[in-house]
Amino acid sequence: MGRAFCYVILGGGVAAGYAALQFIRLGCETAAQAGEFCIISDEAVPPYERPTLSKGYLFPEGGARLPAFHTCVGANDQLLDADWYREYGIELILGTKVISVDVRRKTLDTSAGETISYERLIVATGARAVKLEEIGVNGGSDAENVCYLRDIADADKLVRVMRSCPAGADAVVVGGGYIGMECAAALVANRMKVTVVFPGKHLMANLFTPKIAEFYENYYESKGVTFIKGTAVSSLQISSGKVTAAILRDGRRLPADMVVVGIGARANTELFEGQLAMEKGGIKVDGQMRTSDASVYAVGDVAAFPVKLLGGEVRRLEHVDCARMTARHAVAGALEPLGPITGEINYVPFFYSRVFALSWRFYGDNAGEAVHFGDLDFSASPSPPSAPKFGALWVRAGRVTGAFLEGGSPEEYEALARAVRRRTTVPDVAVLLARWGLAFIVQDQEGRSGATRSGRLCGSGNTSNYAWAWHATVGVAAAVSIAAFAYWYGWKAPYLAKRHF
Ligand SMILES: Cc1cc2nc3c(=O)[nH]c(=O)nc-3n(C[C@H](O)[C@H](O)[C@H](O)COP(=O)(O)OP(=O)(O)OC[C@H]3O[C@@H](n4cnc5c(N)ncnc54)[C@H](O)[C@@H]3O)c2cc1C
């Protein structure tokens, strides 16, 4: 038997870093100094902000490097480097894979041959990249110039391969999701000729509407990217350990100096199969992030939890904000009865991406009717807009369920998040949203028409109230709209383009 800890965090990614900080914030300094906490990770470095790997890390010059993006700088919080963990007495067991777990005995076996025991376990094992073999393309994953992107070792390989290619070399990106999109933008910045191949009809098919996807596809094409949709890579031609071409199902052959694969992720649940309840490809937890075993919590990508906003529907969300929030929530729960009494988690799904000089955010659920606003069409312009602003609201049963915005200000993003959280009522989708778009949401946050709307929702509003509200809404919306337009016209977003994580 090896070491014994009160609290063990299994996994050393985003959620682990935020969990560690939360333990200290909730007053566990003394316990930490007494050696009650540890993080076990098969990565060689302390927790870091994983999204940086597909953004600032891939910049052609002056890219982000550790220790600059350890957690929790992504949430504008403290930077937890190795010294921080040392100072607080949280044991970092790095470069160590946990190979088996016995939930009943509360023990973990590590690749170093140690058996570690715990009283409470927080599972933060995240997810891993789906490999080409898993979609029937054999023999390419180990090639010198085939790259995945999940951890820092992958990112180092990607940078190395990219830099070994001459300007104008051919890069094939397999997959049209966010990894594919972000890597394609990075490859362009690194002067590669990029072709993106994916089987769907448009980019980011799980989130984007066809109209939103069209904007980004046009934008990417204006930067020289080629899209091949509706087909997939069926095999890779390899010579001397390197891929030389990708062969598509429809028979086309794409020359390739390098290949980047972004075809999805799978949660790392294997250690707990048959021991904990599973759902949606992850470990099932309750509103306190507690698994079917009372001493085990699960957070981040690996956790499937009830989303109150969606009527308690269980979801597994592979988003960094979710990892942060679920980690904080689980720690508060794990500390009970010593810590604060935690309620059920009330999380608004939130996801973002940054590519080229663009930056978007999405809140909620993309269910219902999508109503677009802003200018998504630049086909008549000679070049793409330098600071585009557009988006969509998803409305179901007269209420906002989801919101997407490209190029928003912090205040506008906050307004969107609040509209989704409150499930703002939309009296007339066609007129209000299509015509006033973002201004409709922003003015709603100022509370000028909210009361009347909710009165109407409850059936207590009368016609004159509604007419008054309508005119007030339109008046305010017009004013905000004009102000928003003026603001937008002179708007620049250097902080978004330059941010590394
Ligand atoms: C390249 C990239 C870019 C991203 N960009 C965005 C973005 O722009 N916006 C966004 O919202 N989300 C983004 N994400 C998603 C986000 O990073 C994840 O949702 C987040 O990292 C999940 O945190 P986690 O702690 O659950 O898992 P992870 O951060 O993946 O951490 C899991 C950790 O567990 C370790 N581990 C797993 N199994 C074991 C084991 N058996 N023994 C020991 N250690 C183990 C892993 O090595 C890893 O350290 C991105 C993800 C990637 C890969």
From TrEMBL:
Query: Its domain of life?
Result: Eukaryota
**Where does the record place the Monodehydroascorbate reductase 3-like C-terminal domain?**
348-440
All copies of the FAD/NAD(P)-binding domain together span: 7-326
Decide whether keyword Transferase is in the record.
Answer: no
The family database entries (PANTHER family) matched by this protein are listed as: APOPTOSIS-INDUCING FACTOR 1, MONODEHYDROASCORBATE REDUCTASE 1, PEROXISOMAL
The membrane spanning regions, by residue number, are 468-489
Which family does this protein fall into?
Belongs to the FAD-dependent oxidoreductase family.
Give the EC number: 1.6.5.4
Say yes or no: keyword Chloroplast present. no
Single GO MF descriptor: monodehydroascorbate reductase (NADH) activity
**Which keywords fit this entry according to its UniProt record?**
FAD, Flavoprotein, Membrane, NAD, Oxidoreductase, Redox-active center, Transmembrane, Transmembrane helix
Which metal ions or organic cofactors does this protein require, according to UniProt? FAD
Recorded protein name is monodehydroascorbate reductase (NADH)
According to UniProt, the reaction catalysed is: 2 monodehydro-L-ascorbate radical + NADH + H(+) = 2 L-ascorbate + NAD(+)
Q: Which InterPro entries would you find in this protein's record?
A: FAD-oxidoreductase/Apoptosis, FAD/NAD-bd_sf, FAD/NAD-binding_dom, FAD/NAD-linked_Rdtase_dimer_sf, MDHAR3-like_C
